[in-house]
Amino acid sequence: MEQVTRIQDIYRPVEERVKDNKEVERKLTSIEVINQAGRCHTCGIPFCHGAGCPLGNLVPEFNAAVAIGNLERAYDVISKTAFFPEFTGRVCPALCESACTGNVHDDSVMVRQIEKFIIESAYEQGLVKLPSAEPNGKTAAVIGSGPSGLYAAEALRRKGYAVTVYEKNPKVGGLLRYGIPNWKLDKSIIDRRVALLEAAGIKFVCNTEIGKDISAEYIRKNYDEVILAIGTPNARDLKIPGREAEGIFLALDFLHGANRPGETNPERFSAKGKKVLIIGGGDTGNDCVGKSIREGCASVLQVEFMPKPPETRSPSTPWPDWAYVLRTSYAQHEGGERRWNVSSKQFIVKDCHVAGVEVVKVDWEMSPQGKPLKPNEVPNTTEIIEADLVVLAMGFTGVPAEGIVNDLGLKLTPRTAIIAEPERHIHAVGDCANGASLVVRAMADARAKVSRL
Predict the structure, then answer these.
(1) Is the peptide bond before 320 cis (omega within 30 degrees of 0)?
(2) Burial of 228 (0-12, 13-18, 19+ CB in 10 A)
């Protein structure tokens, strides 16, 4: 019998997907998924479940159910720990796969794709329903409708709370809607889940009018519990000479700015015909590469301050830790270039518009285990990278002190994370409490804190 190996190419053809905004991953067949689930070994200790998944998903159990074609059983297993597998099955980096024992001698099981298959099959078969709960007579407000906010809302509803979710944007979804492009997470997937949450009695209030707001005083007076799930909206900026020039955008503005209410010049966010420079090598930077290519850029270059990761797992991150290793996303397969060890010194400006970036090469001092420690500029390596559109995709730094944080009388840690006050029935969940991280970790934090109420 031929050995089943991991499917390496899970994407639609490049020449097809760059012409639309549909999800880049192809739909695996039932046979493909069943065969992949059958690769899950009978581990003495399933590290995917413990050391890997922050939600504690019972990965071996749902894999076993899929392997024998019992999709109803598989959905029953995954829904015990995961409220939104359709989100994590699309955008999670799959910590479970990094911790899979298959990595020791072979290759990990395709847990994320199996998870996605389970939930999509469950929707098709009408299995996805929210469990009912007897009202407990208490009310809860959730501020923010991103991953942690939605998770907190459902968890509260399951405990019997009357839940209202407040969102500053015109539509529900937070980071899922306004931070992840359609070709990774189609927004109809969010709408489908929100409809179920509404049917379960959760109320959503969105800011459909510019300037409309809900006061902190109103929130305090009308709700027994307040959940802050506002993420880390402060993007890391690059305060170097020339920053004020037109044509330099923060990543989320570039990805979604043209669709924001009140925007009068959406064309300025377009990469069509432009030389695009993306500063930042993470997932958001990759998505900016994908957008540039789909819009017909003249060229796109992605630069990263950090050194190039090793081709194989670094000794600094032994299994089952999340591996420090070179990863290539869907966007790099579509085109463009990547460079590492690049430090930006100043923007080149012509007629008030960005024309390039002056950069210098850096070398990194490394630990004996291969972990980057200290950068040093390399003499005589200064150069100009030409660009007429620059995107800053360098992550997020925390929560602003003004707004709801100040209005509720809360404080921030030195790293600008919210210090919540459970004694006042105010709780911070997800990134705003712990710093910018993964969707799955935000959800796990929301679940843990709501469980204590």
Answers:
(1) yes
(2) buried
Strands of the 389-392 sheet, one edge to the other: 248-250, 389-392, 275-279, 299-303, 337-339
The Cα 384–Cα 203 span in angstroms is: 52
Tokens coding 349: 């400006």
Cα Rg for the chain, rounded, in angstroms? 23
pLDDT score at 222: 96
d(CA 341, CA 343): 7
Which residue do the tokens 């840690």 mark? 413
Block means of pLDDT (10 residues each) for the chain, 453 residues, are 85 96 96 95 85 96 96 97 97 95 89 98 95 93 97 97 95 94 96 97 82 82 97 96 98 86 82 98 96 97 96 90 93 95 98 98 92 95 98 95 91 92 96 96 98 96
Q: Give me the amino acid identity at 197.
A: L
Half-sphere exposure of 127 (CA within 13 A, CB side): 18
For tokens 């285990």, the residue is: 369
User: How do residues 332-373 score in pLDDT, each as one tens digit?
Assistant: 999 989 999 999 999 999 999 999 999 999 999 999 888 899
Residues 86, 117 contacting (CB under 8 angstroms) = no
> If you write DSSP's letter for every residue of 143-164 in order, what string do you get?
E--SHHHHHHHHHHHHTT-EEE
Tell me the two tokens of residue 173: 């979804």
Helices (H) and strands (E) in the chain, counts: 18, 18
Comparing C-alpha atoms, which of 219, 139, 243, 165 is closest to residue 429? 165
The label of the residue with tokens 């989320």 reads 252
* Backbone φ, ψ for residue 250 (5° rounding): -70, 150
